[in-house]
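Q: Please design a sequence for this.
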């Protein structure tokens, strides 16, 4: 870029003496050479000296400032590219860390859900076995109470039947049946019912 600017400046400087040697016709005609060869050489030398002075000033003052500015701009762009690359790498690392944290959190959540399900199944099994045990105990108690009530009812029925049978037998036999006879009848009746 800097070399292209210098080349343009040299072309412009080379064209300057030729244009100084020509003068425009006041009538609007084509440019005519300045009168005399000495006038043309003098103006060419003057143009060359001016060109050399301008070139020296530009080379000493302007070109270093332009080159310095271009170098500073290139360095600034390079540093901005490096900073952007560093920021991209930092963002990439942060994204990877974030994704790893998300994956870890998902794994922990799945483990917690699995643990909760397992604990729920254990509690359900404990509650079911406890309920089954209570139900079995209640059933056994109910069967025992029914058996006891049945035995009590049968004993009462046998006692009443024995009393009635004794009374009827006494009337038929015309004699009084003793309490020993009554007990013996009840025992025999109970023995007959059990068989």
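A: Design:
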């Amino acid at each position: 870029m800097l070399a292209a600017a210098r080349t343009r400046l040299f072309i412009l400087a080379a064209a300057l003496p030729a244009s100084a040697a020509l003068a425009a016709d006041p009538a609007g005609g084509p440019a005519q050479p300045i009168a005399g060869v000495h006038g043309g050489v003098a103006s060419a030398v003057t143009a060359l000296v001016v060109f050399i002075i301008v070139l020296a000033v530009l080379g000493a003052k302007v070109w270093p400032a332009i080159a310095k500015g271009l170098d500073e701009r290139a360095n600034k762009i390079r540093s901005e590219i490096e900073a952007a690359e560093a920021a991209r790498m930092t963002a990439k690392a942060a994204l990877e860390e974030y994704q790893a944290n998300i994956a870890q959190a998902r794994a922990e959540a799945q483990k917690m859900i699995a643990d909760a399900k397992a604990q729920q199944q254990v509690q359900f099994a404990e509650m079911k076995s406890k309920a089954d045990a209570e139900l079995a105990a209640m059933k056994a108690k109910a069967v025992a109470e029914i058996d006891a009530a049945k035995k009590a009812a049968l004993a009462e029925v046998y006692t009443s039947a024995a009393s009635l049978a004794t009374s009827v037998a006494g009337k038929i036999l015309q004699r009084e049946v003793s309490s020993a006879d009554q007990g013996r009848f009840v025992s025999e009746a109970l023995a007959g019912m059990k068989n």
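Q: Thanks. Anything notable?
A: The helical segments are 2-21, 37-173, 179-194. Strands lie at 22-23, 32-33.
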